[in-house]
Write a structure and sequence with these properties.
Length: 334
């Protein structure tokens, strides 16, 4: 069946083209809305500016297809192959692309509102500057992808692979990043307020000057991370692992650090006013000049910690372990 026959049949009301072989077909500007091309071969087909709204393309082969400016709104593409496909300026609003293989695809200027890319393979894809607000990218493979200046605010990225992805200037406000492997990632100066990072691995990450206010980071691994001058106001770091993290001048006002592991952490000049560190392990920590006004340190372990020049007004040290602790007046606890 060639493209001419397809168009004639469509004009007569036929919509079932499942399994059709249309390799390298010329369907530029064709109107094929609501047709069923599931399992069809459209490899290297020319579909620029084609009207394909609400089509079924489940498990279709679109490798190398030219879909420049195509109307793909609300299309079903689950499990399809789009390797090296050109989707430049295509409108994919509301489309379902779960487990689609988009390796090497071009998506510059594509409209991706309300798209589901659950489990999709986007390794090496260029999404620089794309608007992916609230997009579903759970369990997607974004290894090596170019996400520079991409808007991922509110995006669902839990379980995604971001290994080697470029993240300069990315907007992750309110994004879901629970459980991600982000060790040694550079997120310095980023807007990450309201982000969900619970259980994520951020060992050795650079978060210098980042805004993480109201972030949910329960049980997050931040060993050796650089959080200098970061804003963690009202963030939830309960049970977090922050061993040897650098948190100098960090804003931790009203943060929840209950039962956090803060051994040997640098909290010099940090603002911990109103923070809850009950049950936290601060052994060997440096808190020189830190603001602990109204801070809860009930049951905290401050063995060998140094609090020289720290503000302890209103701090609750009930049941705290102070063996070998240097207090703000240079008093060494026995």
């Amino acid at each position: 069946m060639n493209e001419g026959e397809i168009l004639q049949l469509y004009q007569r009301g036929e919509r079932n083209f499942r399994g059709a072989d249309l390799k390298a077909a010329n369907l530029i500007s064709a109107t094929l809305a609501q047709a069923d091309f599931s399992g069809a071969t459209l490899q290297d087909a020319s579909l620029a500016r084609a009207y394909l709204e609400r089509c079924y393309l489940l498990e279709a082969n679109l490798n190398g297809a030219f879909l420049y400016g195509a109307d793909l709104r609300f299309v079903k593409l689950k499990n399809s192959q789009l390797i090296q496909a050109d989707l430049t300026k295509a409108d994919l609003s509301g489309s379902h692309l779960a487990r689609v293989d988009l390796r090497g695809a071009k998506l510059s200027g594509a409209i991706l509102r309300w798209v589901s890319l659950y489990g999709a393979n986007l390794s090496g894809v260029n999404l620089c500057g794309a608007n992916l607000n609230s997009i579903n990218l759970r369990s997607a493979n974004l290894a090596g992808a170019n996400l520079n200046w991409t808007n991922l605010s509110g995006a669902r990225l839990s379980g995604a692979n971001l290994k080697g992805a470029q993240l300069n200037g990315v907007n992750l406000r309110g994004a879901w990043l629970n459980g991600l492997e982000l060790d040694h990632v550079n997120l310095s100066g980023m807007e990450l307020n309201d982000v969900r990072l619970s259980g994520a691995n951020l060992k050795g990450a650079d978060l210098t000057g980042s805004n993480l206010s109201d972030a949910m980071m329960r049980c997050t691994q931040l060993e050796g991370a650089n959080l200098k001058n970061a804003n963690l106001h009202a963030s939830n770091l309960k049970g977090g692992k922050l061993i040897q993290a650098d948190m100098m001048r960090t804003d931790l006002r009203e943060a929840d650090l209950r039962n956090a592991d803060l051994r040997d952490v640098n909290l010099n000049l940090a603002n911990l006013a109103g923070a809850d560190l009950s049950g936290a392990n601060l052994s060997g920590a440096y808190l020189w000049g830190a603001n602990l006004d109204g801070t809860c340190l009930r049951g905290a372990n401050l063995t060998g910690a140094s609090l020289r020049s720290a503000i302890l007004r209103g701090a609750d040290l009930t049941d705290a372990i102070l063996v070998g602790t240097t207090l703000s007046d240079d008093t060494l606890c026995a």
